[in-house]
Amino acid sequence: MSTATHAARTRVRRGLRLRGLTWLIWRQHRAAFLIGLAAAAAVTVYASVQHQHATAAITAQHLDACRGGTVDSTQCTRDLLSFGKEYQYPLRRALQAVLLLPFLIGVFLGGPQLAQELESGTYRTVATQSVTRLRWFAAKMGVPLVMTVIVSGVTGAAMTWWWHPIAQTMGSVFPWSMWYPFYGIGPVVVGLSVLFYLLGATLGLFLRRTVAAMGATLVAGAAIFALIEWARPHLWPMRTVSAQHTTEPPAPDSAWLLADGPLSKDGRRVSEVVDCYAQTDYGACLETHGITGHWAEYHPASHLWALQWSATGVCLALGAVLVALSLWRMRRHSA
């Protein structure tokens, strides 16, 4: 047998071995993967149907004339409220439910991923095989990670498709900046799902107990989500505007207003005059205290996708840190 033929067969065997490990991981989690794919497909079908119903209602009720809730009309207000009751409320509940997806993935897929192997001791069989621990780790983490991206990506895209025409029609009546539209659409659904999956797997690697890893993932995931929500307004530069001869924040109706306050005649920010709230002529009272304008810091509606991608980037960066931490733990444990 020639050297070239032996090398070719060795490469084939190695390739089959890698595919075999990937196939084994798929077999271990096949039920969970199929359930996730079926759920994502069901969400896609349902969201598509609801999208069609909403767009048909917008056309039939001529709501384009009231788009965004900016038209000062009693009829428009009545029509938008009626439309929102029928189409916005079901969407709102669905968007809130999507936030459970990253937690479910982290707790039930990420938590047991490595902890189950370490707790039962089956990981020791890796040492008796020709597959290295690093390759085993890559397959154990990589195959469910791909499925996480597929399921969360399909779900996020479907919910965005459902949300878009309703949000455009409702405008400020259905604020884009609230947590349940923001975390239920777009790429941030994928970012959070990937982060929570990696969080669960990393905690499982350190705790080496399945139930403990699942519980720790739930608690740590809630803390991380709270931190991301706290940092969300600062993930993209906000706009600052000032205006004289007004007592209202000079920001668009659809904007995410973060801070505002009064201005003096020379444009300086000053403190609120609480005593003026009880006065009949609020504006005149402010002028007697030298307050003639207002300032505001806000995110316009056009910042939605910039904030979405920024939040997704934060999630993926934290996920990369978790992968590096897991690799360090694996090498230390191997030593």
Tell me briefly what this model is.
The protein is mainly alpha-helical. Helices cover 67% and strands 7% of the residues.
Counted by DSSP, the helix tally is: 10
Approximate shape: elongated
Largest sheet, described in full?
3 strands, antiparallel
Unreliable stretches (pLDDT < 50, length at least 5) are 10-18
State the share of residues found in helices, binned by percent.
Answer: 55-70%
Strand content: 5-15%
Query: Mean pLDDT, rounded to whole units?
Result: 89
Distance between the termini: 38 Å
Compute the gyration radius: what is it?
27 Å
Structural class: mainly alpha
Please provide the ordered H/E string of secondary-structure elements: HHHHHHHHEEHEH
Oligomer: single chain
Task: Give the strand order, joined by hyphens, for the main sheet.
Answer: 1-3-2
DSSP strand tally? 3
